[in-house]
Write a structure and sequence with these properties.
The complex is a heterotrimer of chains A (329), B (504) and C (329). Chain B is an alpha/beta fold and 504 residues long. Chain B has 17 helices and 22 strands. Chain B starts with a strand and ends in a 5-residue tail after the last helix. Classes of the chains: A alpha/beta (329), B alpha/beta (504), C mainly alpha (329). The complex binds adenosine-5'-triphosphate (ATP) and magnesium ion.
């Protein structure tokens, strides 16, 4: 009994002395940081990767080790193991599988390596990424304002092109758009006026479901649509056009990809705009935060991207090069 | 003698390193029928499949009309005027009889697009014309899958004899045909022969060979034994050449029917609209009863209905005195009925599975101890049957049944049922394609089972078989029972006459 | 003498006509059901919407019908459809070729993919499922590589006409589809090629022994299938006025479902284009009606599966019954 207490207090004292002795054990001159991307198949994540690599080049003392999680939790876990064997100082994970989050974090914690998570939170990791709800709100408010000035503050119907199978993140965006719209518009929409449609994340599926829904709102001439991404927005607009009701719809979305930008700048465009996520500058915020963690400076548990609602008017401030034909005529 | 049409020289062929044909020659003259004889697995089908381009020879040469030829695909052989009737049936089940008759050679319309489009009218007419050759009433528009096995076989035969061939190969075309149908086929064959067509004819029925062939070539274990004019051979000498030793013609010895034996199977007033009507008969324990009928008399359908493979509309079935409600094969099985179907391709065998597995398919319980399956027991067990029936295969008991010769496949089917624990055994064409020697082995097995008290019901188109193995023969004509003969009073004439409705 | 059984009575429960008949029946039942459930189902707007959106699955299903009849299957159609849109925009936007030529070249490439499928299946003798599973993945990957994951706008009135335009009051794509159905139905029914295809599917051995050049027939079939899939892809792109590498995801399953629904057997040798057409329409009406009824998208998936099961088991039951009756061996 006594012996145990003595041993225990000895151990505690030892641990305490260790943590006081060295100010910050993880601080170094040069860092090796592992980055495992969500997938290399889509533009968004390619841009994230490029931004991290170029931010590292800018910093000069950071070496990046790359991996691809391929949208798969098990791959993410094995990437984690590889990072640990490769002796990285910190890990940046962009991975989908919440179930694997715990395992990955446990492995990293055992190895004493800090982890940051992009866009999809993991328990115990510092989060960086989109502020999905507020990003959604930006678009919703813009749409509400547009309705206030152009349609006397009242729409007849709203199409919600969501992505139910993909869980809480798209849901937060959709909720943000809906709340933003309802809070801004003069006459709120009732539940019966709102049509929730599954976009399945493809253009032709949104084309189909919007095409199927329009006949059931024959009398609506002021239709708003909130969509989960640019492709879905494009499908929605194409469906309205095919039904000969293009001028009865106004659409907002999320992302502001090149194809979305092109749609906004068209003459008589029905794409009001989309919230920008700026994956191309993720790295500029991510890496300094990671170094703060490694050098034991205080870091907020969640760091959010600053979002901007991109429209025809402000597009050229951000994407002058991409839309050169429009911005520099 | 006519001009030489075909010469095959020094043909060698091996499967899995097992030699199936060794240095086999074959000659064929215009306008002759050459019988090709040999035991099951002797290599007859292999030889003609090589001729046809279906298999490729390992070494050897083939000359057609003096020209060396080499066929890569059956269509090449066809282009040279060689037509085949295969032992195994191949057909497209959802195409019509007419289309099956002409498939690969569909009549086209005239005109520039004729290459692409079918002349339906012409096809139907020609089909009718062709079917008339064997005097069969089959609607050319019926889908092939709606025909009976025998009807399908006939379509195959007609397909080959109707085409304009120089050389016709028939691999056991008559295996399921009764004498009158065989006679009609032979008429056609004679007509073709007069036109100068040469025919290779394979059969295990020696009597047929003496009727139709001018010369005979005998194979044994993949080697050429002899080629002789029919005038120089007798049935006994042929058998000796095939088997390699003398076999005395042995009479099947039927056990005396003990008076007062229990009735094992009784059928009362069984009927199925349009197929058979008012069928009643009994089979006692230890008794072998045959049902004989001409093509399409309903005998196949009748036995299938007794087992439950199809449904009858009326009547009742008793096994061991108990009335049975039989509507599906499981019912038949539960009632203690064993059933060997006519079409071994479809229902009898799992073609892709090994001989060993097929032999033991329905007997797993017997091969396990404490419900653990014992592989060595399975091997022993299979070996017993392979020996008992003389099943022969290149490559041992683990080759897929698909690669066995036709007759050997039939032995596998039979073995599976001979040992199954049943009270009544129904056999359809039990010796379809089985050679002379093995045939008597099978008869021995049947006798032995009957002695043990099994009731056996046989449907066979082979009148000799029917006469020699049955205690009683029932004849069926157009779906009705016409006569019943005891073993002693049954004769070929009487039975055939009754089976033809008394019209012969 | 007559050697056949007494002539069996011709039962109306026979042949393919009954399959189509029962399908038409279920189609009407479905229509009546939806008509009573939602007032918008039987509107001209909805009819127009249905007419506009049949062609994609419809045209692709023609090729799949041929392939299934021949006893094979083609999983790669969705990927090929995506590739054709992506290639059209590559040739048009990147290589600055005329749009007509770009479309032609895109279709040509798809046809080549089909030829490749056919060659692998007939020459190397790899089973069709595995072959096309491989090209399914390869082609989809290529579509991502070529497009760099981007959605590209294809704004050209002549091009979008293919997907959105109308001729004599009917959507152009629908007319195109119907013409193709007529043509191919004729080929299947009356050409030697078509009949041989049934023979090959019913028994490849028989076909070979009967002297049919099986390889050549299969080669043509897979090539046609990929060409038609490519055409579907062009129609998708024309409808949406854009191409995306993710387009037509899962198209293969929709198409196989429609074809099987139409009575074509997965085992080969059996099927008709009339059946397929009805299958396509039923599937489309089912989706449309459920959207109009505002049924959640997950239940729509469930319903689609159930309808397939019901239709196929109905067919099986009918077949089993008539077989028992007929007692054919
Ligand atoms: N494709 C094959 N693969 C392997 N073995 C084969 C193949 N075809 C035939 N054999 C073997 O070749 C031998 C000869 O077979 P074949 O079919 O030529 O005999 P057969 O004389 O026609 O016999 P039957 O009278 O039973 O029809 C048999 O042992 C058989 O198992
Ligand atoms: Mg043979």
């Amino acid at each position: 009994m006594k012996l145990r207490t003595v041993l225990l207090s000895l151990l505690l004292a030892f641990a305490a002395s260790l943590s006081f002795a060295q100010e910050c054990s993880t601080a170094k001159d040069n860092y090796k940081i592992g980055f495992a991307n969500l997938t290399e198949d889509i533009v968004f994540t390619q841009l994230v990767r490029e931004s991290i690599v170029s931010a590292a080049e800018g910093l000069g003392n950071v070496e990046i080790v790359l991996a691809d999680n391929k949208l798969d939790g098990a791959t993410a876990l094995s990437n984690t193991e590889n990072f640990i064997t490769q002796g990285v100082d910190g890990i940046i994970h962009f991975q989908t599988d919440e179930a694997f989050g715990n395992v990955i974090m446990a492995r990293a914690r055992n190895a004493g390596i800090p982890v940051m998570a992009i866009d999809i939170p993991m328990p115990g990791a510092v989060f960086f990424g989109a502020d999905n709800y507020n990003a959604g709100r930006l678009a919703g408010e813009a749409l509400g304002n547009w309705v206030n000035t152009n349609w006397d503050g009242a729409a007849d119907a709203m199409l919600v092109l969501e992505l139910p199978q993909s869980g809480p993140i798209p849901a937060a965006r959709m909720q943000g758009m809906l709340d933003g719209f309802q809070d801004t518009v003069t006459t709120k929409l009732s539940d019966e006026q709102i049509y929730r449609l599954d976009s399945k994340n493809t253009q032709e599926e949104s084309f189909r479901v919007v095409g199927d829904t329009l006949p059931s709102i024959p009398d609506a001439t002021k239709i708003v649509a909130i969509t989960i991404n640019d492709g879905t927005a494009l499908g929605t607009i194409a469906a309205a056009e095919a039904a000969g009701r293009k001028d009865q719809i106004m659409v907002v979305g999320q992302g502001a990809d090149p194809s979305g930008q092109e749609e906004m700048v068209k003459e008589d465009s029905r794409y009001l705009g989309a919230t920008g996520y700026f994956p191309e500058n993720y790295g500029d915020k991510l890496l300094p935060a990671m170094i703060d963690i490694l050098e034991c400076r205080p870091v907020a548990p969640a760091i959010y991207q600053d979002h901007v609602f991109i429209t025809k008017e402000n597009l050229c401030e951000f994407y002058a090069d991409e839309q050169a034909a429009f911005c520099k005529p | 003698m006519n001009a030489l049409l075909l010469e095959m020289r020094g043909i060698h062929k091996a499967f899995y390193g097992v030699k199936v044909l060794e240095d086999v020659p074959l000659t064929l003259y215009r306008g002759e029928v050459l019988a090709l004889l040999g035991e099951n697995g002797a290599g007859k089908s292999t030889l003609i499949k090589i001729l046809n381009g279906d298999y490729q020879l390992d070494s050897g040469q083939i000359f057609l009309e003096g020209q060396a030829v080499y066929f890569k695909e059956p269509r090449d052989a066809e282009a040279s005027g060689i037509k085949m009737i295969y032992q195994e049936l191949h057909y497209a089940p959802d195409l019509s009889v007419a289309e099956n008759l002409f498939i690969g050679n569909l009549p086209r319309i005239s005109g520039p697009l004729g290459r692409f489009f079918i002349d339906w009218k012409k096809m139907r007419q020609e089909a009718k014309h062709a079917l008339a050759l064997l005097n069969v009433e089959i609607d050319p528009d019926t889908p092939m899958r709606d025909l009976t096995v025998v009807e399908r076989q006939i379509v195959e035969i007609i397909k080959a004899i109707y085409a304009d061939a120089k050389l016709l190969v028939m691999d056991e075309p008559t295996a399921a045909l009764t004498p009158p149908e065989v006679e009609m086929l032979f008429d056609t064959v004679r007509r073709l022969r007069e036109k100068g067509v040469a025919i290779i004819y394979i059969s295990h029925r020696l009597d047929e060979i003496f009727q139709i062939a001018q010369r005979v070539t005998v194979l044994r274990d993949g080697r050429h034994v002899a080629s002789k004019p029919m005038s120089e051979v007798s049935p006994a000498s042929l058998v000796e050449m095939m088997v390699g030793r003398e076999i005395e013609a042995r009479q099947v010895e039927l056990a005396e029917q003990t008076a007062g034996a229990k009735v094992a199977l009784e059928v009362r007033q069984l009927g199925k609209t349009g197929v058979f009507e008012d069928i009643s008969f009994k089979v006692h324990e230890g008794e072998i009863v045959s049902i004989f009928g001409l093509l399409g008399s309903g005998q196949i359908s009748l036995t299938r209905s007794i087992f439950g493979a199809e449904r009858s509309d009326r009547g009742s079935i008793f096994v061991n005195g108990q009335e049975q409600r039989i509507r599906k094969p499981q019912d038949g099985k539960r009632a203690g009925i064993g059933f060997v179907p006519i079409d071994r391709k479809v229902r009898g065998l799992v073609l892709g599975m090994s001989v060993r597995k097929n032999l033991t398919l329905s007997n797993w319980q017997n091969l396990s101890r404490l419900s653990f399956f014992l592989p060595q027991l399975e091997r022993q067990h299979s070996q017993t049957w392979i020996e008992a029936l003389g099943i022969r295969m290149a490559g041992g008991m683990d080759v897929p049944v698909r690669f066995l010769s036709g007759g050997n496949q039939q032995k596998v089917v039979l073995a599976r049922w001979l040992e199954a624990n049943v009270k009544v055994l129904i056999l359809n064409e039990p010796t379809w394609g089985v050679d002379v020697g093995a045939r008597s082995d099978i008869y021995d097995q049947l006798e032995m089972l009957a002695k043990k008290g099994l009731a056996i019901l046989v449907v066979s188109s082979d009148i000799q078989e029917v006469l020699s193995i049955s205690h009683r023969v029932l004849t069926l004509y157009k779906g009705r029972l016409t006569a019943e003969f005891d073993h002693s009073e049954a004769s070929q004439d009487k039975v055939l006459n009754a089976a033809a409705g008394g019209a012969l | 003498m007559t050697a056949t059984a007494p002539q069996k009575k011709r039962s109306w429960l026979k042949g393919d006509s009954i399959t189509t008949l029962s399908l038409l029946l279920s189609f009407f039942v479905l229509c009546i059901f939806f008509a009573t459930q939602t007032e918008f189902f039987l509107t001209s707007a909805n009819a127009a919407n249905l007419a506009r959106t049949l062609a994609v699955v419809g045209i692709c299903s023609i090729g799949m019908t041929l392939v299934l009849i021949s006893g094979g299957v083609d999983i790669s159609v969705g990927s090929v459809a995506a590739l054709s849109g992506v290639l059209a925009s590559l040739f048009w936007l990147e290589f600055s070729l005329p749009l007509g030529l770009s479309t032609f070249l895109a279709l040509l490439c798809c046809t080549l993919v089909g030829l490749l499928n056919g060659l692998i299946i007939t020459v190397i003798k790899i089973n069709p499922l595995i072959t096309t599973l491989a090209t399914f993945s390869i082609v989809r990957g290529l579509a991502f590589v070529i497009s760099e994951g981007q959605t590209n706008q294809l704004n050209n009135a002549a091009f979008t006409y293919i997907g959105r335009g109308s001729l004599v009051g009917l959507p152009f794509s629908l007319i195109l589809m119907l013409v193709l159905y007529l043509g191919f139905a004729f080929v299947l029914r009356s050409s030697a090629f078509g009949r041989n295809l049934y023979a090959i599917g019913g028994s490849p051995e028989k076909a070979r022994l009967a002297g049919i050049n099986v390889s050549r027939h299969l080669l043509i079939t897979y090539t046609l299938c990929a060409f038609l899939a490519g055409l579907s892809g062009i129609i998708i792109a024309a409808q949406l006025a854009s191409s995306a590498p993710r387009a037509a995801t899962g198209l293969e399953f929709t198409v196989i479902t429609a074809v099987v629904l139409g009575g074509t057997s997965l085992a080969g040798g059996k099927g008709s284009l009339l059946g397929t057409l009805v299958g396509v329409i039923i599937l489309r009406v089912l989706d449309n009606g459920l959207v109009l009824m505002e049924v959640s998208s997950f239940y729509q998936d469930v319903a689609r599966g159930l309808v397939l099961l019901l239709a196929v088991s109905f067919d099986q039951i009918r077949l089993g019954l008539s077989r028992l009756r007929r007692g054919s061996t």
